[in-house]
Design goal:
Number of strands: 17
Structural class: alpha+beta
Shape: globular
Bound molecules: glycine, manganese (II) ion
Number of helices: 16
Length: about 475
């Protein structure tokens, strides 16, 4: 845990930003996989962790700004809990470690909220993302699940986003711990990707690196030779000569901060000529994006810079035509790069996506596009000191998308559909690194270098 002053100061800042009312924080419960006692790995809600630190199931908390009080609600262990899951300090002992000196049984949460409501206090709650929380909020507030997201408190969301978007030095240190483990996960994959090895073997070895020190995964691993499937979580292929192996994997630190890296490598000793050409276009797009990173510069500029480089490279290969910058601005690039170039990262790998991408990644008044490609850009706003995010351009050939766009005659001034036939089975590749915005630029995070250039990739394969 961070020093208790960190949590006290975070809550004080939040109270000041919102000004009045009662703030409700619902901690996460255990989540059953297939019956009650067979649960997924417990993961506390990230805003609960950020303000209250307590990393155990079945808690809630309130901050009563009007009466300058705060409380954590939860049940002390019964003898059955102790027999089955072991003992731990009392809730009041644990809460004191985070500067909370008022703990109450969970059953009193409803009465506390009811009393605040009857006194006319404004009740602030966050949009729920778990079914149990929807039921709980309905019981606490009488709001039906279908209305909860639209009735969630926008000032509460915005205040949290504004705070959590700016990472402090102690948070960045924690993110770099996660990243160093993540880089070692990737170095393992570079060494293992060989013909005859199964995707599941690499995934297992990579996950072992994440978990062996007591940390765990920040998100489900992608380890695939079908990299054009963006969130490909099945491990079903045996690697063969000529494939490109793509790993997107990251560790979560003990305090639950994420790392998120991607790597692409040849399964054989070297990339083919075609693969090398696409890999180098992708590297140029990566550099173009990184060159834009600075405080005050919209992240959309990084996205467009990468997209233009991809269009430029695809034009050189004869797959596109026209002005690459125009092809990027108009959205034609999305045939080869159908996702966004990156996202905020912190306690969540897509930080605060549960609170709304519109609030996290876009400025007030800037609406997220609904156009294919641009609609997947999670972060577009001008960057500020302390923002931590990923940069992850990729080039993907998705046969179904090529066929659809071709049939619809999409962007025919920019795409040479007649030349794409031999490229349909190319699959896809990306690299991903994580950055923090500094006072006058951006810093690559992590203490261990992940291979990026073709030379570095070949070297990492042979270590
Ligand atoms: N690492 C998975 C993602 O960024 O979506
Ligand atoms: Mn990512």
């Amino acid at each position: 845990m961070f020093p208790k002053e960190t949590y006290i100061q975070r809550r004080a800042q939040l109270k000041k930003a919102i000004g009045s009312g009662l703030l409700i924080f619902l901690g996460n419960g255990e989540s059953p996989m297939n019956y009650t006692d067979n649960t997924y790995r417990f993961r506390q809600d990230s805003s609960f962790l950020y303000y209250f630190g307590l990393d155990c199931a079945g808690l809630a908390a309130i901050i009563d700004i009007d009466n300058d009080s705060e409380a954590v609600f939860g049940n002390e262990l019964t003898i059955d809990d102790i027999v089955w899951t072991g003992t731990m300090p009392t809730l009041s002992e644990m809460a004191a470690g985070y500067g909370i000196y008022n703990t109450l049984p969970l059953s009193q949460l409803g009465a506390c909220i009811h009393s605040a409501k009857s006194k006319g206090q404004e009740i602030h709650f966050l949009p729920p993302y778990r079914g149990e929380h929807k039921v709980w909020l309905q019981e606490l507030l009488g709001i039906s699940p279908s209305e909860q997201s639209s009735k969630a408190s926008v000032p509460f969301i915005k205040a949290i986003v504004n705070q959590r978007n700016h990472k402090t030095a102690e948070e960045i240190e924690e993110i770099e711990k996660a990243l160093d483990i993540s880089t070692n996960m990737h170095l393992t994959a570079y060494r293992m990707a060989r013909p005859g090895v199964h995707e599941a073997e690499i995934a297992a070895a990579v996950e072992q690196v994440a978990c062996r020190g007591g940390e765990c995964l920040a998100f489900p691993t992608i380890a695939t030779v079908q990299g054009q499937v963006l969130h490909n979580h099945g491990f079903i292929h045996t690697l063969k000569e000529g494939d490109i192996f793509l790993l997107d994997a990251g560790a979560e630190s003990k305090l639950h901060y994420s790392g998120d890296l991607s790597s692409s490598m040849p399964v054989g000793e070297k990339f083919s000529e075609r693969q090398e050409a696409i890999y180098n276009i992708h590297l140029a797009s990566f550099r173009a994006a990184v060159d834009t990173l600075a405080p005050g510069v919209p992240f959309k500029k990084a996205h467009l810079a990468a997209a233009a480089k991809i269009c430029e490279g695809m034009k050189e290969l004869g797959l596109m035509k026209g002005d690459p910058v125009e092809a990027a601005n108009i959205g034609a690039y999305a045939l080869f790069f159908p996702c966004g170039i990156g996202h905020m990262m912190g306690l969540d790998v897509h930080d605060m996506e549960n609170l709304g991408e519109q609030y996290v990644g876009y400025s007030d008044g800037e609406q997220k596009s609904k156009q294919f490609g641009f609609k997947s850009l999670r972060l577009a706003r001008p960057l500020e000191e302390g923002f931590v995010f990923t940069v992850e351009p990729g080039i993907y050939l998705v046969p179904e998308l090529i066929d659809k766009w071709n049939a619809e005659k999409q962007f025919t001034d920019f795409i040479n559909y007649d030349k794409l036939g031999p490229w349909r089975d190319f699959t896809g590749l990306r690299n991903e690194l994580n950055y923090v915005i500094t006072k006058d630029g951006a810093r690559l995070l992590g203490n261990i270098k992940k291979p990026m250039t073709i030379e570095e990739v070949y070297k990492a394969k042979n270590i």
